[in-house]
Design brief:
seven-stranded mixed beta sheet; 9 strands; single chain; 196 residues
Length: 196
Amino acid sequence: MLRRLGILIVALSVSLSWAPETFAQTSESSDSSEYLIKAGFIYNFAKFVEWPSTSFAQPDSPIVIGILGTDPFGGIIDRIVGDKKIGGRGFVVKRLKWAKDFKDLKDCNILFVSSSEKEHMDDVIRMLRWLPILTIGETPGFAERGGIIRFTLEDNRVRLEANVEAARQANLTISSRLLTLARIIQQPPAEARKPE
């Protein structure tokens, strides 16, 4: 357990490379430090997840991070990914509202489903299940219901749950390095079958 925590701390501190002033601006409350860590994780997920080549229109198309519902990050996530590139791709952060047509959601590569969208969570997961979108949430049951990654808090530390089957359904490959930091969640077998 301590080794996993050490790996996580080193990975975040090395790859985030945030400036001290960014941390100072966002450390007024435990909530802001929690979401600073979660934003750092989301940035790092882009390094450790492989999307199908058809997910991007051009070799330099940006990685689109969508935040559905109430944005708990404020400007933190924008500062974390603002000038970063992964594989020649920059980042675009979009704030999205619930809509039944899902058009804006389908344009995302990473979708954070805010806890404010708890009542729509099953609809979002069901509609995006077979699309190459890394779904991330923090609502209890998110990974069990088919979301790919869920943030949890244990002893005031951000932890991860990962649904590997949901990632496979979305045609996403998650690095084993990332999976070593997560508790693997199994979804019920009926949920894993593709609709006819």
